[in-house]
Amino acid sequence: MNSKLLSFLEEIKVQGNMSKAAQALYVTQPYISRVIKNAEVQFGVTLIDRSLHPIQLTYAVERLLKFLQEEAKLRSNLDREMTHLSDFKYGHLTIASNEIVVNDIYKPILTRFYKAYPNVHAQVLRLDSRKAEKRLLAGSLDFFVGHPLHASKISYKPIANVPLVLVIPKSAKAFQENKLYLNFSDIDRKKLNDTPFVSTPSDDNYQKSVVNFFNDAGVSPEYSVEVPDLKLATGLAILQLGMTITTDAYVNLESLSEEERKNINLVRIPRSRLSTNFGISFMNRQQIAEPVSDLMDIVTDVVSKETPDAD
C-alpha cells in the first residue's frame, strides 16, 4: 500500500486536486480516497482537510511523504544491492520514457536485454519529464529515456535528435490540395494564426518547445484541445480536430487510408528551428550496476539506428 499511497499523495500535492490527480494517474477518484482514508485510520491522523475548498494537505502529509519517499529509496537501493550481490542472476530494473519514444522501439531492446539477463525483471513506464525526474531522485527509477533532465544529481547521455513534422488538416486555412509533404518555406505562416491546435500538457518540456517555436515563427495558433500524449494528439489531427506537431513515427502513413492521406499536409520542420533532443537521464553514482549499464548501451544502439541522421 505504501507505494500507492506515496504516488497518490505526491500527485495530489502537485495537482492540488484529487480528481486531477486521479486523471493523471489513470485511476478513479474514489479509489484514491479509499487508500488515503485507510492510511488515516492506520496512522490515526488526518491527511487531507476535506472541509476546505480546494482541499488542503495537512502537516501530517508532509511528514508522511518524507518517510514514504525515504522508504521507497531504501527499498530501491536494497533491490539494486541484492542484484549486485547475486551476480545479476536476479533483480529488478525500472525504466521510463516519454511520448517521443514509440512503444515498438522496446521490442528489440528488451529482446537483446533478456538474452543476457533472463532472470532480471524489467518494468517499462510511460512518464513525462517532471514525473521521471521525481522518481529518479526518489530512487524508484533506474533511468529515463526522453528529454534532458536538469537536476544537479542527474546525469544525461544524449542519444538522438528527432525531426518533427507539422500536421495540417484539410480544415485549416494553410492546407494545400494534392500535396502530402511540404517544406516549412512552402507554407504561408499567416494562415496558421488562429488555427485550432491539439497540444500535449502545457507543463511538459516538449510542449513548451513547441510553443517557443511558434512564438519565434510569429505564429499564434489556437490551443483548443489538450491531450495526455503525442500519439493521441496525432490521431486527432488526422481526424481534422486541429494541427499538431509530432514525429513521422506517430503519423504512420502505412496505416492511413487514401482518403486520410489526401486530407492532411505534413510540413517538414528544419531541425535548426525545432527538433526534440532526447537521451538517457540517470542518477550520478560512482558505480552503475552492470545490467543497468548494459541496458543503457542497448537503448543507445537501437534508438540511434532507428533515428534518421539527415534533415
Blueprint (SSEs and pairs):
Blueprint: H1 2-15, H2 18-25, H3 29-43, E1 48-49, E2 56-57, H4 59-85, E3 91-97, H5 106-116, E4 120-126, H6 129-138, E5 143-146, E6 154-169, E7 181-183, E8 196-199, H7 205-216, E9 222-226, H8 230-238, E10 244-246, H9 248-251, H10 258-262, E11 264-269, E12 275-283, H11 290-306
Parallel strand pairs: 3-4, 3-5, 7-11, 8-9
Antiparallel strand pairs: 1-2, 5-12, 6-10, 6-11, 6-12
| CATH-derived topology of the domain at 163-276 | D-Maltodextrin-Binding Protein, domain 2
Number of beta strands: 12
Mean pLDDT across the residues is: 82
Beta-strand fraction estimate: 15-25%
Choose one word for the global shape: globular
Name given to the CATH architecture of the domain at 163-276 = 3-Layer(aba) Sandwich
Element order: H for helix, E for strand: HHHEEHEHEHEEEEHEHEHHEEH
* Biggest sheet statistics: 8 strands, mixed
Q: Report the C-alpha radius of gyration, rounded.
A: 22 Å
Unreliable spans: none
**CATH C-level label of the domain at 163-276:** Alpha Beta
- The N- to C-terminal Cα distance equals 49 Å
Q: Give the number of helices.
A: 11
Judged by helices, strands and strand pairing, the structural class is alpha/beta
Helix content: 40-55%
